[in-house]
Structures are given as structure tokens and as C-alpha cells.
Amino acid sequence: MSLVEFLDIQVRGDERGYLNVLEENGNVPFEVKRVYYLTSTKLGVSRGFHAHKELEQVAVCVSGQCRMLLSDGQTEESVLLDAPDKAVRIRKMIWHEMHDFSEDCVLLVLASDHYDEGDYIRNHDEFLRRASGVKIHPLADVHTDDIGHGSRIWQYVVVMSGARIGSDCNLCAHVLVEGDVVIGDRVTLKSGVFLWDGTRIEDDVFIGPNATFTNDPMPRSKVYPDAFQGIVVKQGASIGANATLLPGITIGKGAMVGAGAVVTKSVPDFAVVVGNPAKVIRTLSHD
């Protein structure tokens, strides 16, 4: 569906002039609760730069012209409003900007509700997250915009700048993700999981509560290695609650690490490991 939706404006006229009709719950597809208009616009000055969570609007240039940019977070469309019979609908969760105003522009806007600052989304990065279905709890502390569609980040989660999180992930409360961490799609991180620099988590991985990841084999306070030895967890693997993983190891595809295991070396694909130190007790079928 095109982002540019023109209303079917009724135009009636004769040699005396024209009447352009906008009717509430008619060609205007909502109850009109607020009307405002922009006047005395300046050349080179742009307006808008926001979206609304719930509000819908209709905009029409009753005089002059301007160009409107509409975006749903994935696609952008531009439309020139240059006639009183060209009214465009602005749905909720559509980012909109107005550019290229003529000096005689009068932009009339009909709105579905009264002014409410809480309904505005003025930060474009926040808009992109919302538009992609990303849900971030207001008590989370997230400093990356590289989060895939449909992921959920719950309260008291800390995600540092530079981290990459895929689509449809679930980061439960009290998770920490450092900046040099890459998380694939459909990953679950249960509460109390801290992922340190160098960690790489592939798609469809489950990491249980309080599983401990490490990245420095000889840790000393205020002494840092030249490079951290991150852990790699391959696609479809599962890490049990309270397991401890030593630096630099790889957990193979589809493998399972038992609860409380201490994993000191890499785990083969589809292996099940338990104990301290963790040992392979069987291999899973992977037809």
C-alpha cells in the first residue's frame, strides 16, 4: 500500500469559484477534534520531523505549496501538495516532514484528537525502533539502534553502544550486553546473563538464567589483554542455568550445556555436556 493516500475531495464550482468539501467521517476518515494551519512559512525552513503513536491527520495546502515526505520506517514517499483539492492522509506511526514551502503557503491540518505531547515521537531513532516492532521497557538502558524487528528488551537491561541484536530476540530483566557483542535472530537471554566483548551468539540460541560468560583467561583488576577471547555459541545451541563458560571456546551447533556445567573447552555440534569440568555424555539426533 502506498504511503501517499489522497482523499476523494468533493469539488463544486462555477464561474464564481470553487467549493472543496471535507466531511468528518466522510472523506475525512475520522472524527475531527482539532484543526490548525501553518501560515507565514519561510523559504528553506522545514517543519514536522515527527510521528504520532495514535493520532491521524489530513493535510491540504489551501494556498501555495509544500512537499511532504512520509516514511513507515522501511520505505519513504514524497508528495507535492500544491492544490486545495489534494488532501493527503497521515496515518498513525508515519514519520512526516514538510519541505519546500512557498511563501504564500497555507497548510491546513485536520486531526483526530486534541494536542497531546505524549503522543508525539520526535526522535527518529525511537521511531525506527517502534516501527520495526522493537519493544524496549522504559527502565532499560539501551545505547544501540542496531536491533532487529520484533525484539523485546525488558526492565533493567543494559545494552552498550555498538552491540548488534537480531530479530525476534527476547532479553529478559537484568541482562547486560557489551558493545562488541553480536546476537543473531530468535535468541533468548534469560535473567542474569552478561555478555562481554567478543561474544558471538548465532541464531536460535537459548541461554538460561545466570549462565556466566567470560572473555579473559587471566583477569586482573585494571589490567586488560590485547584482545578479549570471546565465546562463540553456534546456531540452535542451548546453555543451561548457572553454567560457566571459559574464554575463547565455541559451543557447537545444536549442542546443549547442562545446568551448572563448567565448560573449559569447545563443545562439538549436537553434543550434550554436563559436570565440572563438562564432559560429553551423548550426542543428539539432528536429522
Question: Could you characterize what this model shows?
Answer:
It is a single chain. By secondary structure, this protein is mainly β. It has two domains: 5-121, Jelly Rolls (Sandwich), CATH 2.60.120.10; 132-287, Hexapeptide repeat proteins (UDP N-Acetylglucosamine Acyltransferase, domain 1). The strands form seven sheets. It has a nine-stranded mixed β-sheet, with no helix packed on it. A five-stranded antiparallel β-sheet has the order 1-9-6-11-4, with no helix packed on it. A five-stranded antiparallel β-sheet has the order 8-7-10-5-12. The protein contains one helix and 33 strands. The model has no long low-confidence stretch (mean pLDDT 94). The chain has one helix spanning 124-131; strands at 5-6, 10-14, 17-21, 34-38, 47-52, 57-63, 66-71, 76-81, 87-90, 95-99, 106-111, 120-121, 135-136, 141-142, 152-153, 158-159, 164-165, 170-171, 176-177, 182-183, 188-189, 194-195, 200-201, 206-207, 212-213, 232-233, 238-239, 244-245, 250-251, 256-257, 262-263, 271-274, 279-283.
